[in-house]
Design brief:
Layout: H1 23-39, E1 43-44, E2 50-52, H2 53-60, H3 65-70, E3 73-75, E4 82-85, H4 90-99, E5 108-117, E6 129-138, H5 144-159, E7 166-171, H6 175-191, H7 198-203, H8 220-224, H9 235-250, E8 256-257, E9 269-277, E10 280-287, H10 291-294, E11 302-308, H11 309-322, E12 328-332, H12 335-350, E13 355-357, H13 364-373, E14 378-382, H14 384-389, E15 391-396, E16 398-399, E17 402-403, E18 409-413, H15 417-427
Parallel strand pairs: 1-5, 7-8, 12-13, 12-14
Antiparallel strand pairs: 2-4, 3-4, 5-6, 6-11, 7-9, 9-10, 10-11, 14-15, 15-18, 16-17
Helix pairs in contact: 1-5, 2-4, 5-9, 12-15
Bound molecules: adenosine-5'-triphosphate and magnesium ion.
Length: 428
Amino acid sequence: MASNKNEPLRGVRGMNDILPADEPLWQRFEDAVAGVMNAYAYRRIRTPILEHTRLFVRGIGEVTDIVEKEMYSFTDALNGEHLSLRPENTAGVVRSVIEHNLLYDGPRRLWYTGPMFRHERPQKGRYRQFHQVGAEAMGLTGPDIDAELILLCQRLWDDLDLPPVTLEINTLGQAAERAAHRAALIAHFEAHADQLDEDARRRLHSNPLRILDTKNPAMQGLADSAPKLIDFLGAESLAHFEGLQRLLKSQNIPFRINPRLVRGLDYYNLTVFEWIFDGLTICGGGRYDPLIEMLGGKPAPGVGFAIGVERVLEILRRQEQSAPSVDVYVVQQGEAALEAALQCAERLRDYAVSVQMHAGGGSFKSQMKRADGSGAAYAIILGDNEVAQGVASVKALREGGQAGASGAQVSVPMAQVADYIRERMLGQ
Ligand code: ATP
Ligand code: MG
């Protein structure tokens, strides 16, 4: 391609620079991950970014989005090898475990982090180079280990102070059970062939299970009414799924069963799960018992997950922006009120409460607007009336951290305002 030497050089579309300003956030995330992995006795493994293309074709599946259209694959001009940038890392970790015989003395709990590459249309939360953190437990049949991985995720969300993330779980049963379901599924979709979109028609015979994953609004009814895999499961698969649910309940992990959760990769069986925030999946995982043997190892079960790092960081970023920067905003009008306000603010600061004093005058109404916008949890209001009565009016601006959920205004004797606020802040 002809290139204009005056044209500025730019990075590859969908591949981001992570600049120093973002580093504290990445560091915080990476430290939390390392801490949690250590707490669950998972050990880090680092595998190459390039692998033989056939590893992903065999390990992810030929009729998956990733292998069909998202891989950066090329032929090494120097030796003719067919290579791909890794689009995910379960296949690479399994390859390494087999190659180095890591399961020789029993099960392994491993984790990794690093960049992954998929040729997708860049948009919010979707890049061509992105990062994943993943964990893989091999040689264990579960459902205890499935639950452990979910608890590990929950602990990470807690350590990062994420707002509530929804856990969805489902079971994909075993291959034979899926085959029976598949026939019913194809019959269902064929009976409504006129309602299928192009994507669904393409998948009807190659990967009909994936049609359940459709985001097309026009297809939701058809997908919801499709035969459910759970009705095709034998006793053993059902027991595994029920065992997982029992363990999650016993550990107070809320979850929702989503019969349409199928995940994109071919090798999953039994447990699949996703953590969702604001409509975006931040973590997906599941069991892949057939995979190790499929890639040439001695048969051994496996289960794991991958977290989309950029998607989690985006939540953290948003939260930092909305985090209250001050605890208390002082609204005051009149000379006497100002003196009382200054005194009151100093006493609060003695208690390490951060206080923003309104300056520059203005009506109570406009000052209250500022108070709301400041993110403060409380407003203290002082005017002539309050001063005459020796009190301050205190108003909670955000109940339970929730903006807009303001409480009533209460009168508190001036001398007790600092204690009143401190007690409430400690009580939260
Ligand atoms: P989706 O349905 O969003 O395409 P997926 O099934 O392809 O997801 P996985 O292969 O399960 O995703 O990857 C695990 C996680 O990695 C996803 O849940 C998401 O958080 C993240 N992820 C996947 N693809 C991208 C991407 N292109 N850019 C950023 N994050 C991604
Ligand atoms: Mg995808």
